[in-house]
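Practice problem 4.
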């Protein structure tokens, strides 16, 4: 059992809060002012981890906190001879099943080569053949208009592998996709070049809260922010008013830029994915029943 002194864990907790506040505090201000943000709101709406939860630090399994009695008010913590720590009994059968599923999914994803030829067309397929006002971000113009957007979708093959992106395709766009991914296909199809699979590392990290260290959740969230920005810069929307320069995937130069950045994110995500794989294994080993 690793024991953190009171000074050590308090410093880590403060650093964690200050780090994530750069996103949580502006989000709260926008909510108070009833202002939507087409890029960043996604990280707090599509993903279900509330800002207050993101700001909350925890040490992860196998770590005790000296004089950490304030953590006893939080679910899953208990007093031990070394200090306050997570209780293995808090990993219920349902949560153990979640850890095993996440471990299997991330391991399968990591075993595959990255596919880098989708060019972010999933966002285009979500507005394909829609009427003005029916698009998801109706307050923002389409760079090429509706007809131009439809022409781009029809001019390039669509190869989305991610079910949770594919399910938002318009009915007219669905048959154009190379695959028809379903929830049941997730473990078989998820691959490390997919922007959504890499954003989802944040989801898999918080699904195992409080057993995942706060720093790892924050690392996954920070990656998700930057990936989401590329996702929307490559979308058909004109977000230049918000400071997001478009990645024009309808041009050869734009596609090359997208692939370059997609590859960089895939490489960065690989390290986080492995950390989550290791964490899942640690959680399952830590909570395994001890022989009599």
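Answer key:
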């Amino acid at each position: 059992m690793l024991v953190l002194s009171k000074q050590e864990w308090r410093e880590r907790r403060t650093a964690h809060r200050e780090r994530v506040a750069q996103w949580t505090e502006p989000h709260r201000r926008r909510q108070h002012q009833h202002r939507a943000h087409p890029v960043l709101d996604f990280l707090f709406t599509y993903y279900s981890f509330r800002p207050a939860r993101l700001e909350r630090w925890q040490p992860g399994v196998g770590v005790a906190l000296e004089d950490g009695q304030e953590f006893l008010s939080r679910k899953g913590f208990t007093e031990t001879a070394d200090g306050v720590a997570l209780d293995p009994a808090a990993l219920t059968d349902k949560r153990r099943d979640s850890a095993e599923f996440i471990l299997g999914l991330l391991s399968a994803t990591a075993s595959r080569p990255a596919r880098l030829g989708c060019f972010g067309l999933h966002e285009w397929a979500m507005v394909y053949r829609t009427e003005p006002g029916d698009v998801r971000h109706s307050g923002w113009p389409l760079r090429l208009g509706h007809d131009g957007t439809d022409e781009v979708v029809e001019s390039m093959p669509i190869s989305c592998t991610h079910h949770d992106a594919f399910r938002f395709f318009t009915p007219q766009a669905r048959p154009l996709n190379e695959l028809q991914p379903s929830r049941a296909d997730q473990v078989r199809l998820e691959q490390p070049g997919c922007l959504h699979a890499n954003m989802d590392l944040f989801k898999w990290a918080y699904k195992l809260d409080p057993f995942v260290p706060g720093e790892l959740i924050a690392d996954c969230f920070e990656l998700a922010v930057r990936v989401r920005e590329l996702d929307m810069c490559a979308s058909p929307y004109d977000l230049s008013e918000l400071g997001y320069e478009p990645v024009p995937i309808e041009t050869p130069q734009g596609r090359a830029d997208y692939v370059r950045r997609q590859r960089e994110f895939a490489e960065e995500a690989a390290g986080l994915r492995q950390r989550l794989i290791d964490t899942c294994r640690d959680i399952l080993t830590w909570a395994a029943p001890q022989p009599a």
